[in-house]
Amino acid sequence: MRRIIVWLAVIALVGGTLTLSAEAAAGLSEPAVCIPGTNVALGKPVTASATRPTSDPARAVDGLPNTFWNSDQHAPQWIEIDLGRNYAVTGVVLLVAQAPEGQTSHNVLVRSSAGAWGSYWQVAASFAGYTVNGQALTGLAITPGGVIGAWAPVRYVRVETIESPSVVAWREIEVYSGAAGPCRNEPSPPGRNLPWPFQLRNRAPVVVLPLEVTPDMGDPRVGTALGSFNPSDPDTVVYPVGFRWVNTSFAGDPLNWQHVEVMPGVYSVDEAEDATISGYAANGIAIVMNLGVGDWVDEPDVTRFKDPAEIVRYGEYVRFMVNRFKDRVGYFELWNEPNATLELVDYLNVLNHVIPIVRAEAPDAKIVVPASSGWWEWGYPGYGSSGRNVLDKAFLFGVLDSVGGLVDAISWHPMFGNRADDPYYQGYPDLVREIKARAQSNGFEGVYLAEEMTWRTPDDTNDPTFQRVSPTVAAKYFVRTILLHRGLDTVPIIAPGAFDWASIRRTNVLLAGAEPVDLSLLVEGTAPDLERYAFSLPDGRRIVALWTDGVPSDDDVRTITDLSIDGLAGSTVRAIDVMDGSSQELSTSDIGGRLMIDGLLVTDYPLFLEISPSGG
Fold this sequence. Notes:
- The protein is 20% helix and 32% strand.
- It is of the alpha+beta class.
């Protein structure tokens, strides 16, 4: 269940952020409202403090959002529903009827039949903030543990309007009961203009974009890490999600050295995996084939390459693999995570022997090193009994300083369940810039690959040392890391997991053909730890992705940000949510040649802004 929460303030808008009243956890509903239970207010008896004869109170509970009760009076006014008996109420939805728009405040009061709570009204929820006609206000019975509970027992529900620039009216008042039942997750009724999912006071329609992968889709420069061969991967992971890069055979795999060299000097390749590689190549997939021993089971490098004969033997395996696959594989990665099992000097001896072999056998092939990982730390704050992994920068830099000018791609494994409140995570963008600067200082001019990035969920049996997160939080981390690396001109290669791939698919579709660019972005507001990256598309459009980079949650807690972009005045802007595919055209203005986007609602995963320049 996802809830969109836009924090509302009882007093006023302060510093660009709205904050929640102390009385209740009341937020704005998302385009598909999700409250447990059914609407028990529908058609029930209703009274009001005042009414216009042609707009009686029953219209607020008739299930029709295009009719409304109108008190014909200014605040304070109230409307009261008799549910007929006591219910356990999980939440309310108030559909606003208001003209003009402006600052309003409302209380939702509840009481039971005689007995229990007696005749005393209790405040269940309070709303205060800037509201507009057609907006839906949602109040949920939130427990101290942060889940939906119930107000109980409740027979009477009264909505009091304390402040409004308009005469008091409501299109619909819905009261939900049935905490144990399934969520209602259905399309909104026709004509129902739900709240600001992307921008304050924006009443443009919200639509769902298909964002499906097509055969002629450009390269998003995003990949997946498939360390162990599975013949179903192409049709279940690679093609439907829109990956255009695949990192293969770095774990237990038929293409590992010990499986290909069936006896000294005799080599054999698994036919099924060979055919899969051919399929990838035929479909334009960039293949990064790791040449190593995978999970280090029965590996031939028994002395960890301290014996020169092992280096020669490994070189012949590399020679065979390059010759076998050079017509289909563009990138050959020399070993996996050498920092875990080899000393730096021994790995460099391997590279100095093997790099000339690759160059001689396949001059056009790209050589990738070092696929280095990190070191584990236990007991770090926030990780509980799980491990914390930090990239082994010393090993990586040792490789760059020695062979950085001799290879075509630099790879590393940076994220294994790292938390957003970890200083390593927070400083990681600067670490990427440092890696690139170090490589370039050694004459490197190729591609950067950030591989095997992983966040594990409770249903995922892999990597038990990783801290578990929910599927929603995992998806948010994955989309973040894709945008971060693409924004830093690095190819992100993420590991599969037990979460919904749809958000990754939508991200890949939006990034197809994108190249990172520098845009003059000015941000105002109090969105914490705001990350943003910009891209250009082949047709002239721009993409801006921005998010708050704190620890993500299962809810969408949105903060208000004003954004201006130099040189794009007159452009149209569409906001796109990759978690559900919803989209809305934004209201913009132009000031001094800058494109202004006010009241943007930014959350803890990337919000895409698709900018179409005027005349484009």
